[in-house]
Amino acid sequence: DTGVSQDPRHKITKRGQNVTFRCDPISEHNRLYWYRQTLGQGPEFLTYFQNEAQLEKSRLLSDRFSAERPKGSFSTLEIQRTEQGDSAMYLCASSSTRTSGMSGELFFGEGSRLTVL
Amino acid sequence: GESVGLHLPTLSVQEGDNSIINCAYSNSASDYFIWYKQESGKGPQFIIDIRSNMDKRQGQRVTVLLNKTVKHLSLQIAATQPGDSAVYFCAGVPSSGSARQLTFGSGTQLTVLP
């Protein structure tokens, strides 16, 4: 297993179009997270799954955003009717609740960079 | 909720010197703190973490210090190398104990000078 993988790495779209990003977590990690990162800022939490259940959503996740993890493995993040303000890096991370000790280190993917023209 | 922030957006050090990156937090109810390193074009990478009941933790070439009295933590990198050039983030986890609420600061860009 080579870690968390995200696809596509870069996406350029026109305002109003829909985009979908995919995340494949580390095998057997039961937790999966989506974060958004804009230039010069730290990642901001968007949403989180434990297995296939979406347990938490940030207020940043407007109704144009939807995330799924249908089989508890890979996840998709869809943005409908994209706006220029959606331009950012979308990071996926995974972790395991079976990690002993601390609450669980997050393993991040390399992100999907979205540019909305 | 937790609020974390870094004191300096940029830091330049000579190769071989020690680096100290500082971070402040506002919520005393955090269970633990994590330092991440992010190289250009890559996702954040875990460096080291520390529980709130500790004041120091050491890793390979890195040490994290936690001062709960002044709500401050620092990351010390010994013998800084060119490969250490990156943005460093501190992140706090509230006492609910799940990394799902990881709150990141805005980061310090560390530049290692030859």
Number of helices of chain B: 0
Return the string of H and E elements of chain B. Answer: EEEEEEEEEEE
Q: Which spans of chain B of ≥5 residues are poorly predicted at pLDDT below 50?
A: none
Which structural class do you get from the secondary structure elements of chain A?
mainly beta
Distance between the termini of chain A: 35 Å
Overall form of chain A: globular
Shape of chain B: globular
Q: Which properties best describe this structure?
A:
heterodimer, A: 117 residues, mainly beta, 7-stranded mixed β-sheet, 4-stranded antiparallel β-sheet, 11 strands, globular, B: 114 residues, 5-stranded antiparallel β-sheet, 0% helix, 55% strand
Describe this structure in words.
The complex is a heterodimer of chains A (117) and B (114). Chain A is 0% helix and 48% strand. With 117 residues, chain A is mostly beta strands. In chain A, strands 2, 4, 5, 6, 9, 10 and 11 form a seven-stranded mixed beta sheet that branches. A four-stranded antiparallel beta sheet of chain A has the order 1-3-8-7, with no helix packed on it. In chain A, strand 7 and strand 8 form a beta hairpin. In chain B, a hairpin with a 6-residue loop joins strand 4 and strand 5 (45-51). Chain B is mostly beta strands and 114 residues long. In chain B, strands 2, 4, 5, 9, 10 and 11 form a six-stranded mixed beta sheet that branches. The termini of chain B are far apart. Chain B contains no helices and eleven strands. The chains are: A mainly beta (117), B mainly beta (114). The A-B interface holds A 4, 31, 33, 40-45, 48, 55-56, 91, 93, 95, 102-111 and B 9, 31-32, 34, 36, 41-46, 49, 51, 89, 91, 93, 97-107.
